Amino acid sequence: MKYHNPVLLHESIDGLDIKPNGIYVDVTFGGGGHSQEILNRLGKDGKLFAFDQDDDAIKNAIDDERFTLINENFKYTKRFLRFHGIKKVDGILADLGVSSHQFDVAERGFSTRFDADLDMRMNQNDKKSAFEVINFYEEKQLADILFQFGELRNSRGIASKIVEAREEERIKTSFQLKTVLAKFLPKAKEHKILAQIYQAVRIEVNEELDVLKEFLMQTIDLLDEGGKLSVISYHSLEDRLVKRMIQKGMFEGEPEKDFYGNFSVPFKKDGKLIIPNAEEIKQNNRARSAKLRIAFKI
C-alpha cells in the first residue's frame, strides 16, 4: 500500500525555487514524496530537514546524507533547527493534510469508513484522543468545537445527543458514534456531515490550528530574505490562517505602517492561489480540496 500520494507535488516544489546548495525544510514529511522531490533538485551541498511527529512516518526516512528527519511536531521547527545549527533557511514546505496512510489504517481512527477506536492522534504518544473529546468534554465545549472547527450549524443538537448517549455508556468506536448520531445523518449527506464532525474532533485532538499559527509565526524568523514559503491546506480554517499570514504577517488586527504609510509585512505573495487540476483529482480524490499558497520573505 502506498503510504501517501503527495498532492500538488511539482507545483509546491516549483514554488520553492530550489537553489542547488540551499537549505530547505519539509515540516510534514509523511511518506516522503515532497522531500524526495526536493532532494532530486538539490545539489551535493544542499540540505533538507524534515519533521513528522507520527512514528509511522519515521519508517519512511530517506537514506541520503543531505537529509535529516526529526521526529517532532512542526510547532518546534525553529527550536530543532537551532539544535542542528541552522538559523536561516531558503525555503519551507508544509502539506497540512492527513496522510493517506493515516486515513487507510483503520486503527488510527481518522476515517469514517472503518469501525475503529476513537483515536485520531497524529502523535500516537499524546494522551488526548478523540475518545477523551467525545466522552469527557462538557456539552458547550463540544458544541463550540463542532461549530468552529466543523462549521456545523446544528452543533448544539449534535453535542446534546452525544452527551445524552454517553451517560448510558461510553462511546468508544466510530460506528458507535455514527449510530448515536443517526438522526443527524440523512443518507444523501451522511458522509459530508460525518467528515465535518471528524474534522472538528481531529483538529481539537491535535490542536491543529494553534500548531499552525505557532509554525507560521516562526517562518518569519527562519526564512532568509527572498526565501520561499509553500503551504498546501485542505479546509477554509487553515487556508484563512495561511492567507492572513501572507497578507498581514499576523492573524488578527492590522500591521503597523512604515514612515511612508505603507503596511510593514514580512511576506509578499508569489503568484495566484493554485488548486489541483481535474486529472490529479481523478487520480487522487483527496486532492480535491487542496489549496496551495506561495510567498517569499521580503
Structure description:
The structure is a single chain. Strand 1 (23-26), helix 2 (33-41) and strand 2 form a beta-alpha-beta unit. The protein starts with 8 loop residues before the first helix and ends with a strand. Helix 7 (139-150) crosses helix 10 (190-206). The longest helix is centred in the middle third of the chain and has 17 residues, at 190-206. With 298 residues, it is α/β, with parallel strands linked by helices. Strands 3-2-1-4-5-7-6 form a 7-stranded mixed sheet, sandwiched between helices. It has 13 helices and 7 strands.
Write the layout of secondary structure elements.
Layout: H1 9-14, E1 23-26, H2 33-41, E2 47-51, H3 55-58, E3 67-70, H4 77-83, E4 89-95, H5 100-104, H6 130-136, H7 139-150, H8 155-168, H9 174-180, H10 190-206, H11 208-222, E5 223-233, H12 236-248, E6 267-269, H13 278-283, E7 291-297
Helix pairs in contact: 7-8, 7-10, 11-12
Briefly characterize the structure.
This protein is of the alpha/beta class. It has helices spanning 9-14, 33-41, 55-58, 77-83, 100-104, 130-136, 139-150, 155-168, 174-180, 190-206, 208-222, 236-248, 278-283; strands at 23-26, 47-51, 67-70, 89-95, 223-233, 267-269, 291-297.
- What kind of oligomer do you see? single chain
* Average pLDDT for all residues: 93
Percent helix, as a range, is 40-55%
Coarse morphology: globular
Unreliable sequence segments: none
Write the CATH homologous superfamily of the largest domain: Vaccinia Virus protein VP39
* Structural class by secondary-structure content: alpha/beta
Task: Please state how the strands of the largest beta sheet are arranged side by side.
Answer: 3-2-1-4-5-7-6
Our measurement of the CA-to-CA distance between the termini, rounded to an integer number of angstroms, reads 42 Å
Major sheet: size, sense and barrel closure? 7 strands, mixed
Radius of gyration, whole Å: 20 Å
- SSE ordering: HEHEHEHEHHHHHHHEHEHE
The CATH class of the largest domain turns out to be Alpha Beta
Number of H- or I-type helical stretches: 13
Whole-number tally of structural domains: 2
At CATH's second level, what is the architecture of the largest domain? 3-Layer(aba) Sandwich
